[in-house]
């Protein structure tokens, strides 16, 4: 059944071109109509904290720009020419051919054409990512799995103890993916693991992908996105996987995460606990340093919590702010459209962190319906914190409440390497929330006195 949603929070499967761009020196080749790639770029870069084009993004992406002629007579000839041109003009270690709706509707055999180049020794992968197949969370999995199947291939594993492949954030769709992956890699390295992070500036690029079969284990840090990938790797290379369904935000979850990884990897408990002790000591010292602020402005601070984001971030941020900061949870709105089976993973992970979260977890991609539900719960409250997108910021301003940025769209802020993952990420989130107190509401007369004195 077809329907229209208001305030969409994701793009179509072709948005997986950004997954390709997140791999250092990888280049997408788009077989779609003019404008498809550009619209995806606009939403997931400018609309996601102005993250930039990357190595070969934006106007640099090769595209067939198919018109009526290709729809009527087929676009395979034009696709071959486009791939050939990209290989000659663009410097890349990996080229991934992605399709839009028209190419898949008319039946162009994109995967076979990509295979022709691969058989000739070119680093080319083909994957069908027509927009009607699903959103870019789904497209992300398609692309990752295609690279493993067609590029990494049937390699014979050479097991290296301590090596872990990490599958977590969806690049660009998670506006904080670069900082998140850096923090996650740093946490894992702190307990002695070697990490293939696969995406972002902390990745070595294609060499890490070729190294995937040699890992001791795979780590899926996500409720459902990437589950098909780690199962594929288990089947293909016999690599076991640890499924940790919650983004570790703050001290409690980060420590639990390190302990779970340590046990699975066979790392000494003494080693893991030494790292945890150091990180928790640092975290809580910083937290204590906020006591003066929290006491001084307690009458101005929010206490009710609404979170709008994908399942990875919604649970991670929601549980941190409830369990460690003391917010009263009113609702977590999950916007990544998991299937009914996948929803059960999300619900189970949420309920295991916050008892009340099972009844306050809503799977909804329609921003209009989300805001309607929030308004009904909100009433006349002026103590609410909305953690979400620019649309939630507008709601906060219009209702004289508070906001912090978390999810797309985010066209009015700049994200460089900000992260809410890990111990440091939890502190970053608190800085964001409480700095916005001064932007969102009128503060106390004491605050005005300080400002007047400073002026």
Summarize the structure.
This protein has 20 helices and 13 strands. It is of the alpha/beta class.
What does this structure look like?
With 455 residues, this protein is of the alpha/beta class. The protein has 3 domains: 13-152, Rossmann fold (3-Layer(aba) Sandwich); 160-283, 3-Layer(aba) Sandwich (Rossmann fold); 285-445, Rossmann fold (3-Layer(aba) Sandwich). Helix content is 48%, strand content 14%. It has 20 helices and 13 strands. It has helices at residues 17-21, 36-46, 68-73, 76-89, 101-106, 110-119, 136-152, 177-190, 206-210, 227-237, 250-265, 269-288, 291-296, 311-323, 340-353, 367-378, 390-398, 422-435, 437-440, 445-454, and strands at residues 26-31, 62-63, 94-99, 124-127, 160-167, 194-196, 215-221, 241-244, 304-309, 328-334, 361-363, 384-388, 402-405. The strands form 3 sheets. Strands 11-10-9-12-13 form a 5-stranded parallel sheet, with helices on both faces. Strands 2-1-3-4 form a 4-stranded parallel sheet. A 4-stranded parallel sheet has the order 6-5-7-8, with helices on both faces. Strand 5, helix 8 (177-190) and strand 6 (194-196) form a beta-alpha-beta unit.
